[in-house]
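Priority: medium. Attachment 1 of 2:
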């Protein structure tokens, strides 16, 4: 089974391919400025370089969203591997994205999300068992 590519490897691939065809900024400074111009979060050139080289890992979801927008790829590019796509493991990708989003919530917000998940789970279980409500 092939090893899963890291976030840094995926980001570096995007940077290298965009530099090769001239689609995106060529330096980390230009990337940082382009993200900021498009309304994305402030990302320093040093932080971008650290993400691309693997010195920093697990960026917050709003940084991932900004990078995906910059390079014109879906956010799932950074989490979805060919193995997961081939096996149809979309739920694993969705779970990763949900977990990243939850990290940025307050403790109260995370509790509310968990309460909502519990409610949805009860509702779906009741539907599977042939009942009309949660």
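Attachment 2 of 2:
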């Amino acid at each position: 089974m092939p090893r899963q590519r890291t976030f840094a490897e995926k980001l570096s691939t995007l940077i290298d391919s965009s530099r090769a065809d001239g689609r995106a900024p060529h330096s980390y400074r230009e990337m940082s400025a382009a993200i900021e111009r498009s309304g994305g979060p402030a990302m320093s050139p040093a932080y971008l370089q650290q993400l691309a080289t693997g010195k920093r890992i697990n960026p917050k979801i709003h940084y991932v969203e900004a990078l995906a927008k910059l390079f014109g790829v879906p956010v799932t590019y950074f989490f979805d591997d060919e193995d997961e796509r081939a096996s149809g493991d979309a739920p694993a990708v969705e779970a990763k994205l949900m977990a990243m989003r939850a990290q940025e919530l307050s403790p109260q917000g995370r509790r509310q999300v968990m309460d909502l998940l519990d409610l949805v789970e009860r509702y779906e279980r009741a539907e599977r068992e042939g009942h009309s409500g949660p």
